[in-house]
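Chapter review: from sequence to fold.
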Amino acid sequence: MIELYRPANCPSCAEIEETLRELVIAHQVIEVEAGQAETLPVGTSLPAFREGNRVVSGAEAIALYLRELERSVADWRRFQGDSCYLDDSGAVC
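The token string follows.
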């Protein structure tokens, strides 16, 4: 499960949470004070994601991580049904 570690008063963190809700991805939000997230490596800046052994922090890394999640979710949903879909190259069934 994806864990989002965030400080309580963080407007950009609320946007990250909204993105996760829109993607309908199972996640847990853990509000912590800076330096209080014992399960994260020492010195990890908040906000931060933890997924298994992977830890992502920093604005650029988080933006990239969210784009990766969006692509993964879109691919997963596209190929889960017995249906045709249209992409840029035409119909694929």
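Two observations follow directly from the output. Helices lie at 11-23, 59-78. The two ends are 31 Å apart (CA to CA).
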